[in-house]
Design goal:
heterodimer, A: 126 residues, alpha/beta, five-stranded parallel sheet, 5 strands, globular, B: 139 residues, mainly alpha, two-stranded antiparallel sheet, 4 helices, 4 strands, 10% strand, elongated
Chain lengths: 126, 139
């Protein structure tokens, strides 16, 4: 069962997404800001990270960059959850090191597909 | 910690801020509606599908009204535009409140009841903006 680190400072977003992910059979752990995301990416060994772009302490992009600085996390799949409001968020997410992105409100079947593809690739690379 | 941004009395409201603060409760309505669609019976599910449709349409209108093309590339929102948005948001919130999702066969599970409450909470937030011009921002 893959472990997903969900990073979002909004409690309703965390609730909605974590429940749907658990229904799909994933184990879900959560972080509420970018700094916690960086810590947990190392301490909790997630298989994939869902990273909101708009976070306190460290933004999603900054947290992604910091995660990628660790040699052990260079290949950790990270999907950015970008706000529809912010132009350029997609490009910034990829430039920061995210593997893919989805726009809120999250199209859950699309997200689930992207998660599966990245987990398969990561499994193939390991 | 929540702070209140008074959108109604300022002619210099950031488009990005306004869009983000309106899209957040709308996204909550859409998200919880989708969870409920997985859980509700055949009587209640169409009503929540209608709630989701109204929320999606509202999101689309907001994106259109606050698009760079409509604003001539500007980054601030005029009082007139705010008023237009408040009317559109009020109409959508009123429509959502008229839909009685809870009424139906059997009792709702505690989880479904809680999800409906979250939709109500998000809709109230939109209605508050529509009536007062106030946005609640998270810090």
């Amino acid at each position: 069962m893959a472990r997903i680190l969900l990073v979002d400072d909004d409690d309703m977003n965390r609730d909605m997404l974590s429940r749907r992910l658990m229904r799909k059979g994933y184990e879900v752990i959560v972080a509420v800001d970018g700094a916690e995301a960086v810590r947990m990416s190392q301490s909790e060994a997630p298989d994939l990270v869902l990273m909101d772009s708009n976070l306190p302490v460290l933004s999603g992009q900054e947290a992604t960059r910091k995660i990628r600085e660790a040699p052990s996390e260079r290949h950790l799949p990270i999907i950015s959850l970008t706000a529809h409001a912010m132009a350029g968020d997609h490009e910034r997410a990829i430039q920061a090191g995210c593997d893919d992105y989805v726009t809120k409100p999250v199209d859950f079947p699309l997200l689930a597909d992207k998660i599966e593809k990245l987990l398969r690739l990561a499994g193939a690379d390991s | 910690m929540m702070s209140t941004v008074h959108a109604g009395d300022s002619a210099q409201m950031s488009v990005t801020l306004l869009k983000h603060e309106l899209r957040t409760p709308i996204n909550h309505i859409i998200g919880y509606s989708e969870i409920l669609l997985e859980d509700l019976d055949a009587v209640r599910a169409p009503r929540v599908a209608r709630v989701r449709k109204i929320a999606r349409e509202l999101a689309s209108v907001i994106d259109s009204v606050l698009s760079p093309a409509r604003l001539d590339g500007g980054t601030t929102v005029t009082a007139e535009l705010l008023l237009q948005l408040r009317r559109v948001v009020e109409e959508a919130a009123t429509q959502i409140f008229t839909i009685d999702v809870a009424c139906g066969p059997g009792a709702l599970s505690p989880e479904c009841r809680s999800d409906l409450e979250r939709i109500q909470e998000a809709t109230l937030r939109l209605q508050r903006f529509a009536r007062t011009g106030n946005l609640c921002t998270s810090e």
